[in-house]
Amino acid sequence: MFDKEKVGYSFPAFTITIERSKIHELALAIGDENPIYHDLAAAKAAGYEDLPLPPTAPTIFTFWGNTKLWEQLASVGINVARVLHGEEEYEYVAPIAANDTLTGVTTIVDGKTRRTREGSMDILTTETRYTNQHQQHVLSAKTMFIVRE
């Protein structure tokens, strides 16, 4: 059962530098051939300072940047072996491009326990607020985790 007193708890900050090669690799992996994700000249011709971040890229920030998230969730009593990904939502506040360094702080913003026929499940929502190297808020990412009991 989720400890509701953990709502509002923030984990330590993490950083990730957005690399041009990673933007290119992600676009290749998802089959996006738009040249703005592969070629600096094309990105600049389209009005970007550098290769822009593809819209769903923040999903990978958890794996590239916040490599301790699973340990952090376990530290507040979440059984990470029983986690299902529920939902992801992004709010872009300012452009993000190659060579930006983002700092993310993940906070537990909601948590509840729901009864099921088999017992119960916890539904946990986190929000990660990202600022860039200029301390400008650029992105908020919400993630819902379902923890099967």
Q: Give helix and strand order, one letter per element, not per position.
A: EHHHHEEEE
Pick out the low-confidence regions: none
Largest sheet data:
5 strands, antiparallel
Name the structural class. alpha+beta
Helix content: 10-25%
Radius of gyration: 17 Å
Shape: elongated
| Overall number of strands | 5
The number of helical segments is 4
- Termini Cα gap: 8 Å
Q: What's the overall average pLDDT, rounded? A: 92
Question: How would you describe this protein?
Answer:
- Pfam families: FAS1_DH_region.
- It contains four helices and five strands, in the order E-H-H-H-H-E-E-E-E.
- With 149 residues, it is α+β, with helices and mostly antiparallel strands.
- The radius of gyration is 17 Å and the shape is elongated.
